[in-house]
Amino acid sequence: MSPDRHKPHDLGGLPAGPIDREEHDLAHWEQRIDAMVSLCFSKGVLHDVAELRVGIEALGPDAYDKLGYYERWAASIANRLVSKEVLTRRELDERIEVIRARRGDS
Amino acid sequence: MSDEHTHPPPRPDDLEPHSYHALLGLALSELLIEKGIYTADEERRMIEKLDSITPAEGARVVARAWCDPDFKQRLLEDGNSALRELGIDHVDTELTVLENTAEIHNTVVCTLCSCYPRRLLGRPPAWYKSKPYRSRVVREPRTVLKEFGTDISTDREIRVHDSTAELRYLVIPIRPAGTADWSEEDLARIVSRDAMIGVAEIPSQ
Amino acid sequence: MPRFSCGDRVQIARRDCAEHHRVPDYVKGKTGHIERVCVPFGQPEKLALGLDGKPFQMLYRVRLEQADLWESYAGSPGDTLEIEIFEHWLEPAADA
Questions:
Q1: Which pTM does this prediction carry?
Q2: Domains observed in chain B
Q3: How many angstroms separate the CA of residue A2 from the nearest CA in chain C?
Q4: Gyration radius from chain A CA atoms
């Protein structure tokens, strides 16, 4: 492996185990994330998927092991929209608490 | 500011178990709708639109290519343009069509993320986006294909395509034996998503 | 005017690059030939920052021999890999 090989998303050629071919339908929240990406582009809030890809790449080496595909996208979208001041981290945190209370999680 | 008295009613998502990042996704959706970035109706319609695209679209293209050699040639030369003949609008990216032959078997991957011809095949399967597929198929394609039950003889070249930029790939599998007088509709029914990604072939009928 | 033509031998740059870029590590420094000249697109490095990606760079498809990419490649000797690389990541091959 070369010395500058530090990016967790750059997977080509790395050793890995068997491929899990199980398939399942998307959860509702995953469908919302999928739609959100398309809508943010069509509404001009985001301009290119590169803005979100770079955000996923910046999540750190654990992201691929600890987070699922749509979780990584959610994290990247949140980071990008906060940096563009479309919403704030505080608004997100508060809304998460509201959702938890609604579900009876907290 | 959260207000205990003005919680909206529970939504279908609320009934599913959720990680922090899933809750983050829900929070994003609610806030973007409240801020007027898009409406709940637009979200619902976009979900329906994305759900409605299945590999049947790609299969239609393959079946037409099998039946019409001139169309196949146009498809190989300019995918986006040929798709418009079928009423399919492929925008933003360049559809690049790869033809399997007696000499060459094509397989597609995106090692850096999950680039995939969504307009023709719908959402990619989880395995296509997974670490093991993205890591291994470029380095040991024959072994990976065998795991999918696909054995490519050693006298055929395996050509792996890493979708790193603006091109999206569709594989035209070899038309199987026993289909010489089939209609385009019947042919489309046997074209599998996995054959159009290039991890499978279509068996003789 | 594209810098390279179909059939040209090219080397993919090996550059330390902390920015978002679309060149996987396993092809950096490798040599192959131009399989196809595509069209210009915005530079991913700039698009990632929310910029317009200009000046657009010509995109190419490069064909590489698997035997050149991997030590002890276990497939067939004729196996290849094709990948999309932007002009600003390509140089004429040393053996061109």
A1: 0.93
A2: 20-52 (no CATH), 56-197 (3.90.330.10)
A3: 8
A4: 16
